[in-house]
Amino acid sequence: SPQIVWLRRDLRLADQPALYAAAHAGPVIPVFVLDDEAARSHAYGGASRWWLHHSLESLAKGLGSRHSQIVLRRGDAVEQLCEIARECGAGAVHAIRHYEPWWRQAQGKLDEALPDGCELCLHDGNYLLPPGAVTTGSGDPYKIYTPFSKAMLERFPPRDCLPEPETIHSPDKWPKSDSLSDWGLLPSKPDWSGGIADFWNVGEQAAHERLAEWADDVAQYDDERNLPSRDGSSRLSPHLHFGEISPAQVWHRLSGRRGQGWRTFEKELIWRDYAQNLICQFPDYPSKSYRDGYSGLWRNPNRGHIIQEELEAWQRGMTGYPIVDAGMRQLWQTGWMHNRVRMIAASFLVKHLLIDWTFGEQWFWDTLVDADYGNNGVNWQWISGTGVDSNMFVRIMAPLSQSEKFDAADYIREYVPELAEFGDEDIHDPPDHKRGKYPKKIIGHREARERALSAYNDAKQG
Ligand code: FAD
């Protein structure tokens, strides 16, 4: 009987356990359902929709060249999958497990709702180890990264990768499908043809090409990853997010390269598993602070504070701090931001501007091509010190000295054209009289630091 493969953030043909199992059990019906309701504030953001469009297009092409296709449906995933299962007399729905709360809920409902004779088969495949696989000595999930990471390393290697199925048989009759172009995932505004579209190649093949191109650089990762002016990190994040490549594939491709660069990179990959491990424990983590004593800390329009102008200055890269502005403009132009600069820009929002981190989380959610429920939420809480892990609030990053320390001059020249002609001595902190059209600092660093620390102390006492 036909086997449905429910595709979500796993848009690949190789090392795709759900597709692999389905292809060995019968004719395959790959299905993607676009549900704009279930995820509420975490429905696909603008940049993610752009990526999703191209990723689905690429997957459809890949399936087409294997005499298969993808069925696109819009609406409630459980209803759509049940309808297809009934229509085609499907024997099973195969899917890779996902842990976003709306998908966990759908997985649970689907299990109940599928017609008799059609079973739900969930597979692991998008993490180095299945979330929940490592626990503390007393059997609890970890809350802190370092012991989590240690326990993961003790359990490695991750599972072996699966090949692409040799053949993907088609069903006798295909269920009806929407047309991708009718979904309107590509925005008419802004026009990203000069930015995001030039910066990225989307799809499974592109992911493997990027990995191959970058593989030798892992040796220098430890030295280069913090330097925004260099191409020192893998830029695999959107490919990993959409599952165009699996972390196991990345691990196995690179793990032969012993050395500090690889060891540091492996730990970053583990951060991705760690974030998911927290989401499994605390499903609302990306929208709710988990540490007491913070509720009164930030200026927040819900409590009558006016933050709009400053929030917009941050979003548009007009704060007067070149490293922050370069990062925010890189984000807008390319849908991605260097990790070190993400940390600096996020810290600037929550500490220098005293704006609640959830505004930053939502802006990143809308503008990042790698916007990821776990990674984004966990990193925002980590920077803000509001999470279940470290209390980082009092570690206030100094954007000007960070910019010098990590040699961001060329990066600033690239993304802040007003400063393109500035020399190294001025570019990190241009003197006011030389700024021209570039804005003055929105707030002085020392003043911001004192304000943040005193707000923190007041909040703790209150
Ligand atoms: P590399 O340095 O090459 O790392 C390889 C992979 O490891 C990444 O692709 C990513 O999957 C994973 N990884 C690396 N660092 C982290 C980390 N700190 N946390 C979790 N996973 C990590 N990453 C996202 O994928 N999606 C997000 O929405 C996201 N939001 C963030 C928000 C803030 C405020 C901060 C500080 C970081 C955020 N990150 C997010 C983590 C990190 O910045 C990106 O994963 C990284 O910059 C992606 O670039 P890369 O692929 O070149 O990373």
TrEMBL record:
Protein name per its UniProtKB record: Deoxyribodipyrimidine photo-lyase
Cofactor detail note: Binds 1 FAD per subunit.
Cofactor: (6R)-5,10-methylene-5,6,7,8-tetrahydrofolate; FAD
Family to which this protein belongs: Belongs to the DNA photolyase family.
Molecular function terms from GO: deoxyribodipyrimidine photo-lyase activity; DNA binding; FAD binding
Keywords: Chromophore, FAD, Flavoprotein, Lyase
Swiss-Prot/TrEMBL GO biological process terms: nucleobase-containing compound metabolic process; response to light stimulus; response to stress
Pfam families: DNA_photolyase, FAD_binding_7
Record-linked Gene3D superfamilies: 1.25.40.80, DNA Cyclobutane Dipyrimidine Photolyase, subunit A, domain 3, HUPs
Residue(s) at site: Electron transfer via tryptophanyl radical: 298, 357, 380
Stretches that traverse the bilayer: none
Domain Photolyase/cryptochrome alpha/beta residues, every copy: 1-128
Residues at which FAD binds: 221, 233-237, 265, 370-372
